[in-house]
Amino acid sequence: MDKEQLLSELNFKAVRSSGAGGQNVNKVSSKVVLNFDVENSSGLSEEEKALVLSKLSTRLTKENILILNCDEDRSQFKNKAIVTKRFFDLITRSLHIEKVRKATKIPKSVIRKRLKDKKTNAEVKKNRRRPEF
To answer: What is the pLDDT of residues 24-58, one digit of tens each?
Structure first.
């Protein structure tokens, strides 16, 4: 993954934010929309593209374009920084490969010890009962 190449492939668009904000909301385009075309990216290798496409399939459009929005701040510059950081976090998380869990065999000595402990515990409980005549 080449971060500089990916950064140059990002498309940013400033849009007016929705919601309350008074007179300022009608004048200032502070919301930032990030578009990233996964298939035509040269910053990702083919294996990385396949990983991103499979892991982020629910967040992609039909044309395999990732769209992220940010309207948390009133500053367009801060929103652009937030959405860029969010994009790189998302890409690095989608490229992370989980380790395959290997099932381990329980040693026979551990099984024997567990059975022995069960027997001693049962014996202790048996001795607590009333004696039978």
So the answer is: 666 778 889 999 998 888 888 899 999 999 998 89
Residue 20: inside a domain: yes
Residue 70's domain comprises 3-95
Which residues does 72 contact at the CB level (< 8 Å), separation at least 6?
Answer: 78, 79, 82
Report the chain's C-alpha Rg in angstroms: 29
Instruction: Please count the structural domains in the chain.
Output: 1
The distance of Cα 61 from the centroid of its chain, to the nearest Å, equals: 18
Name the DSSP class of 19: S
pLDDT score at 19: 66
Which residues make Cβ contacts (< 8 Å) with residue 79, sequence separation at least 6? 30, 31, 32, 70, 71, 72, 73
Task: Please state, for a pLDDT cut of 70, what percent of the chain lies above it.
Answer: 94
Q: DSSP string spanning 28-59?
A: ---EEEEEEESTT-SSS-HHHHHHHHHHTGGG
Mean pLDDT over each residue of the chain, to the nearest integer: 89
